[in-house]
């Protein structure tokens, strides 16, 4: 599967079918007068003040030694400020984790292993190994992870508290869908904001018990040090303004059978090992492109969650979200134009879709909508 995706998303919707070490260490040192009362910090972050009944005299040697310690602390602080980067503009902290220590290798079948070398790309696929674009907000300031590591978005207490339970954190809620295929949910509950994000999700049993988002469980093996799965996308398209799109490709390595993910113009993100799956160990028999939202009608009305840009497909380029250059990879690892595309919109008054084809974009479609409106109560 290969496509380019417009990401002018004004709220979360699923836009993709399939699916620095930045340790933010804040050293707060109270460097007051030499004779100030000491403040000790325990691991819980509480401050302990030690009150003294009598202040002994301070020798010149003690004063000089304290001055040297203060100078040393200042140098340490300056060094830490240099090597430890602040959170990205979206509030995320990205840790650079050694490749063989990423969550995937906690899996019993993967322990002690290392990421595989890149596979053979599908034939007739144009890619650029030296491309530097990542389309992620955390890299806008020039941050990156060194070779031999992978960038992983740090999970915080706030992230987990937004979930209904620790057990459910990072997993898709079991939500009834109108159509007969199961899909993903992308929700501010997972990230705590409204930034559009590049995410993955895998499951082997239609979202019942297995799988998770991104790298929140053992499964997907990341091989790239430039892409943080789950990080915010940047730059973003603007309505009636400049448009940006991202190329995505998922294909099965014919040699080893793993499912690989490519992002942008040739950036291999990583792969899902073949042993995770049952039917997909052989091949896929259906591919879905498009967007999804969750509509529980908890208030008796259709959700006002927008899909794509929040505008209907008929508005076209610069206003509606789109997929373009849709292709499939056949059994012999060839990229082929997509044929027999079937369109589906569960509630066309809430969100709709329109297909097209030309020599530049190949097979494409616009999609999306505002959700609840006068025609979609």
UniProtKB/TrEMBL annotation:
Gene3D superfamilies, alphabetized: Outer-capsid protein sigma 3, large lobe
Stretches the record annotates as Disordered: 42-64, 105-150
Protein name: Neprosin PEP catalytic domain-containing protein
Basic and acidic residues biased stretches: 117-130
Segments of skewed composition (Polar residues): 54-64, 131-142
Start and end residues of each Neprosin PEP catalytic domain: 119-377
């Amino acid at each position: 599967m290969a496509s380019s995706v417009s990401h002018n998303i004004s709220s979360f919707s699923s836009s993709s079918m399939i699916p620095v070490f930045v340790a933010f260490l804040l050293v707060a040192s109270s460097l007051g007068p030499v004779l100030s009362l000491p403040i000790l910090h325990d691991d819980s972050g509480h401050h302990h003040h030690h009150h003294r009944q009598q202040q002994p005299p301070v020798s010149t040697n003690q004063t000089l030694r304290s001055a040297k310690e203060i100078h040393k602390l200042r140098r340490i602080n300056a060094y830490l400020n240099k090597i430890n980067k602040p959170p990205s503009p979206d509030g995320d902290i990205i840790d650079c984790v050694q490749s063989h220590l990423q969550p995937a290798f906690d899996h019993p079948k993967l322990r002690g292993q290392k990421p595989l070398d890149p596979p053979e790309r599908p034939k007739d696929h144009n890619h650029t190994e030296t491309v530097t674009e990542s389309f992620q907000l955390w890299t806008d300031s020039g941050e990156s992870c060194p070779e031999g590591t992978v960038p992983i978005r740090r999970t915080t207490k706030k992230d987990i508290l937004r979930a209904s339970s620790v057990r459910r954190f990072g997993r898709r809620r079991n939500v009834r869908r109108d159509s007969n295929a199961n899909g993903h949910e992308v929700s501010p509950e997972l990230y705590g904001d409204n930034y559009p994000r590049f995410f993955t999700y895998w499951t082997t049993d239609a979202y019942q018990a297995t799988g998770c988002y991104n790298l929140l469980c053992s499964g997907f093996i990341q091989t790239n040090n430039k892409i943080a799965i789950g990080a915010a996308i940047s730059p973003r398209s603007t309505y009636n303004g400049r448009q940006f799109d991202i190329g995505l490709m998922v294909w099965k390595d014919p040699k080893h059978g793993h499912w690989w993910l490519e992002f942008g113009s040739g950036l291999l993100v990583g792969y899902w090992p073949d042993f995770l799956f049952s039917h997909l160990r052989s091949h896929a028999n259906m591919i879905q492109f498009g967007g999804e939202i969750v509509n529980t009608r908890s208030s008796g009305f259709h959700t006002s969650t927008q899909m794509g840009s929040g505008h209907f497909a008929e508005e076209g380029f610069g206003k509606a979200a789109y997929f373009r250059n849709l292709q499939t990879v056949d059994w012999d690892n060839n990229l082929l134009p997509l044929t027999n595309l079937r369109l589906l919109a569960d509630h066309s008054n809430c969100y709709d879709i329109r297909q097209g084809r030309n020599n530049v974009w190949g097979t494409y479609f616009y999609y999306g909508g505002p959700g609840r409106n006068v025609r979609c109560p």
